[in-house]
Write a structure and sequence with these properties.
By secondary structure, the chain is mostly helical. The chain has five helices and two strands; from the N terminus they run ααββααα. The chain has a two-stranded antiparallel ribbon. It is rod-shaped and about 110 Å long.
């Protein structure tokens, strides 16, 4: 089950790279994004908002980096099968989930427009988090076995040495 979860993370991270790279490419070229959907046609509004950059770098480029890191970690986990890598994947997925929730909240409460690519990225991140939580349990329960009923140990055999 662990390996299958990591394979799904690998595939989802690849989809995330494609999604973020599409937005980043349009941001770099200055071309408008192709949006469709009734209430999800605000891609260009979101991409042009003041919230779309952090330290002057477009969020989509951070997305490519984030999903790229997840992709590499998942690929390494498939080869090495290491518990530390699974933990790092879980932490990265959790950070990504909080980031996605924050940016989705920005769309709802501050920008007032919805981007289908951003929502897709959020769903991908949520799925990665779900699969990451299954690949390694955070808390392992210790099984306490019932004490084995045994007979008391035999009494030691004490004898006196022969008298001379």
């Amino acid at each position: 089950m662990k390996r299958l979860g990591v394979v799904f993370i690998l595939l989802l991270a690849f989809a995330g790279i494609a999604d973020a790279a599409y937005i980043a490419e349009h941001e770099i070229n200055g071309t408008p994004l192709i949006c469709s959907g009734q209430s999800l046609s605000g891609c260009n509004v979101v991409a042009q908002s003041s919230y779309s950059r952090v330290f002057g770098v477009p969020l989509a480029e951070y997305g490519v980096l984030f999903y790229g890191i997840l992709f590499v970690l998942a690929a390494l986990e498939l080869v090495l099968f290491d518990r530390l890598l699974r933990r790092v994947l879980q932490v990265a997925a959790l950070i990504g989930l909080f980031g996605s929730l924050y940016f989705e909240a920005l769309q709802v409460f501050f920008i007032g427009a919805f981007c289908i690519y951003c929502i897709t990225s959020g769903i991908i991140t949520l799925l990665i988090f779900i699969f990451a939580s299954f690949i390694e349990p955070v808390r392992q329960t210790k099984r306490i076995s019932a004490p084995v009923q045994s007979s008391p140990p035999p009494a030691p055999h004490l004898s006196m040495p022969p008298q001379a």
